[in-house]
Amino acid sequence: MALIRPTEAIDSARRTARRTGLGPGRAVALLLLVGLGALVPLLGPSVAVHSTGEATTPDSGVVALLRAALFAALSVQLGEVFVSGLARRLPDAPAGRPGEWAPYAAVVGFAAAATAGELAPHGHGSRSGVLALLEAIAFAVAGLCALSRRPARQLWPLAAIVLAEALRAHPPTEHTPLIGSGLTVVHLTCSALWAGGLLNVLRTLRRWGGSEAGTALLGLYARVAAVLFAGVTATGLCSSLRRLPSESVLDQLTTTAYGRVLLAKVLLVGAVALLALWARTRLRRAADPLTACSPARMEIVTLGVVVAVSGLLTALPLPIKG
């Protein structure tokens, strides 16, 4: 049996790290970021309701964390399908692709949806519980599709998850629930494609290196992201106006837990928009267009915080309309 030299072992490890797109240092950094991000939904409810006179349920932090995990899993899976479609439009795209995260995301989404259903009032026997169970099943199906020869088939179960989440967020007792559900469908889809798409574009660029195809892929994503940002902004504004009392919107942004977290989310999205504009400017004017990856990396970290804050938002009491 031939002996493996130390230098050969090191080269092999490096090649493996390039294939997976995640070295040991980056893996540790990613775990730290995920851990810090988890503190936002876990500790957020008690911080948000401080001095408002409102109360949260004992498991509101866990529920917020589960919803954030569900949103993140959905974003990763939709993002992979989205970027794979963009890459196929490039005639000179390298054959290499980063390792798929979709199957792992499906496991996270399945666990988050199933647990959220258990924590719903009356468990899986309630409307929210049934919708959570449907989401868990859809995540399982999406995971199987991700492992198949046609991973694009994930789109159908992922669309079912978006629809179920929209129906869960707007029960029949709400005023015009179908309008609210329609806004949530568009908002959640655009948000997931925006965040998940950027994550997978950056992973693909790392796999491809400094190729011209990488620049083309980033530019193609940037054009679509502008439309996604418009969809997120418009539907988010409409949804917020529907839920906040129209006569005291500005006051509710600082005196209610929901308003405070919503204001924080708006500020974060504004920061993301500035980072996206910075990246787009570098992409167009810099001598090396791939220097746009630096602000894009900051953008994806900020988008991760936005996902955590979105999960927190779903676990807070809505302002009472007069």
TrEMBL record:
In which domain of life is the source organism classified? Bacteria
Q: Print the keywords alphabetically.
A: Cell membrane, Membrane, Transmembrane, Transmembrane helix
- Copper resistance protein D domain location: 216-313
Query: Which is an annotated Pfam family here?
Result: CopD
Q: How does it sit in the membrane?
A: Multi-pass membrane protein
Q: Which InterPro entries match?
A: CopC/D, Cu-R_CopD_dom
- Compartments in which it is found: Cell membrane
Residues crossing the lipid bilayer are 21-44, 64-87, 99-117, 177-202, 214-237, 257-279, 300-320
PANTHER family, from UniProt?
INNER MEMBRANE PROTEIN YEBZ
Q: What is this protein called?
A: CopD family protein
Query: Species lineage, top-down?
Result: Bacteria, Bacillati, Actinomycetota, Actinomycetes, Kitasatosporales
